[in-house]
Amino acid sequence: MRFAGVKELKHKTMDILRASKDEDIIITAYGKPTAILHHITDDDLADYLIENDPVFKNRIEEAYTEYTASGGVTVDALIRKLEKRRDVKKV
Question: With 60 as the cut, is the pLDDT of residue 91 above it?
């Protein structure tokens, strides 16, 4: 992990961005950490945007609430149901 001040970031932006491919870089202002520079790929960006989208999070929470209110099904029950279905098809 590396530290870089705001002044260094301003003057060596591309060098710091390249270095972020190898390690996270903590950006400091007046000696105090203010941000972390972390390299991401296109796939990482898509995941980040979905995971941090408040509308998406809200939809997931609403779906889970509806699921639990309607009784839902436990993972164990679903596995048993699928195993029974697989056994029926074998015969």
Answer: no
